[in-house]
Amino acid sequence: GRQIFQPLHTLRSAEKELLPGFHQFEWQPALKNVSSSWDVGIINGLSGWTASVDDVPADTIARRFRYDVALVSALKDLEEDIMEGLRERGLDDSTCTSGFTVVVKESCDGMGDVSEKHGSGPAVPEKAVRFSFTIMSINIRAEGEEDAVTIFQEQKPNSELSCRPLCLMFVDESDHETLTAILGPVVAERKAMLESRLILSVGGLLRSFRFFFRGTGYDEKMVREMEGLEASGSTYVCTLCDSTRAEASQNMVLHSITRSHTENLERYEMWRTNPFSESADELRDRVKGVSAKPFMETQPTLD
Questions:
Q1: Helices 67-77 and 79-88, interaxial angle, to 10°?
Q2: Taking every annotated instance into account, which residue ranges of this chain make up the domain V(D)J recombination-activating protein 1 pre-RNase H (predicted)?
Q3: Which terminus, N or C, of the chain has the lesser number of Cβ atoms within 10 Å?
């Protein structure tokens, strides 16, 4: 007497769960500005970009995964390593359901000239940029314990085997506006994830994960681009402090990190509004070479 005719959508969801790379997960609290659907594949790179149409170069071509979906997929790939790590540390996996922290290294770089030499495809910019991430380590702080225990550490953090592409875009890495338009939504998703916990089934039990992001995979050109600093020929040589070339050659030792993301934002506003009606040179000296609006916080930590 069991009914075998099921409504189509039930079969669809049953089918989906058998697909590779499909994982059910939840965020607590739910992510702000991110849709709640979790069966997300490759999406248009400008998804989530809310500014007016005029602001966005319409012929920009970019494809990406939603950031949280990509992280879930990466964690599920590491499922056996996580379980193994718990066993090696002598932890009872049935009590370890919360307190996991995941450190993610972000990388972004230009891929150079990718033009078709004599193709007749659509006209697209002839440079490409790839944004990717690597899961560097997973720790757990068991209840009642003071210290966190590392249960997974990426052995080859700089290998392309551990590096997961998140977004591919046809854009020149020096095109600040287009890069901002495409990576803006990625930044918004990352920001939302910092304030929430991921609930995901690992080893048959629901466990909760927090994420920390480190931007150590950017080269200097990209850091300058993302923080709105002048290019590498600038008088202001350092991406972390306000040293000029002359000062740096005099003093190689005493520096303090003065170029934080928020400070760069404030300086951009000052450059834009010029509140003291200064000349171009005076103004430039005041903002120490911050001339574009920084859009991605790059936390300087050693890789």
A1: 50
A2: 26-98
A3: N
